[in-house]
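1st attempt posting a full record on here, be nice pls
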Amino acid sequence: MSVTGSAAKRTGAAPHPAGRVARRAADTARVLEARWAGVLPYASAERLQSGLVHARRSGGIPDQLLLLEHPHVITLGSASDRSHVLVDAAERLELGLDLIECGRGGDVTYHGPGQLVGYPILDLKPDRKDIHRYLRDLEEVLIRVARIYGIAGRRIPGATGVWTDTGKLGAIGVRVSSGWITSHGFALNVTTDLSYFDRIVPCGLAAERVTSLERLTGEIVSMPDVVQNTAEAFATVFGAALRWAGAPAVPDADRRAPRRKTEPPRREAGTGPA
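the predicted structure (as tokens):
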């Protein structure tokens, strides 16, 4: 992967060889194009990802980072156990919860308002063709974002995601095509209504707790700030030059996840892949 360097300062003298190397690095730096898609139904996001994957594979676009929120939805990965969905069709209808089978790996998870979802559409060729490294890099992005808010995120050996002392903050579930083009990605709980996780047993880990930036900081967290911080952290970790596709439109600064007036009894549950 290319790394951006500083161009040599122009003077009357011939440029130093190191300056020429730095300019070449800047000229060939990998570009990451970030897109804010707003609140997007899960099926629509899958169609958008599919189009971006095709365009990335053909070389029509640079690497992409699609950032968005979903309406309430439970998704089933390729390794899902249906018994890990703890609400029936009638309860899902009452809660406004969709149930969708998706193309990522992993088990059951929940997405909803107040959760920042990131779908990187990257070409891992030629120098990042290592899925384990890719997963660790996604974790690093979330750890860096958490650090901005004074939160110590960490990995757990043998698992994928980001945890804190009081629960799981970020989940990861990806798909990598045979051409090393990525899709699906990560989910970071910002102002998420965590009670919705009580309706699932993601990854079969019934005792696992979840948390959010809002709960951990005890403050209202600005989604626009998290969107910007995440895009910048992603570009840094992946050694890319960040640019926004169009204006970097982000949600209203004072918007928080909607809260239900009445909540059913809580169950102990965790989080799962994106």
